[in-house]
Design brief:
0% of the residues lie in helices and 53% in strands. By secondary structure, it is an all-beta fold. It is globular and about 45 Å long.
Length: 118
Amino acid sequence: QVQLVESGGGLVQPGGSLRLSCAASVSIFTINAMGWYRQAPGKQRELVAAFTSGGRTNYTDSVKGRFTISRDNAKNTVYLQMNSLKPEDTAVYYCNVVRVGVGRYEYWGQGTQVTVSS
């Protein structure tokens, strides 16, 4: 079992910045993939940014150049630095972890609200 604790959401004006944090209860080295998804009202949950197996990073096209995913291995924590925020970035952001062993296991954080509005 993996617990994920998220923080850092809030209300920000367009053009502003926020940093989300996700701390895992297990060593980050035992995790195959870790990243962020978001879900806006009336829309499907979508991948925002993630570290995949092998240490590669994936970003959805709409955030490339504005968002940066990073990690602190010592703290088992992944961050999402969000710059130049737009109203369309408004959503609940969820941390996601995938572990693959005998089976494939997926875990989600509780979600943190990000609202971009003037």
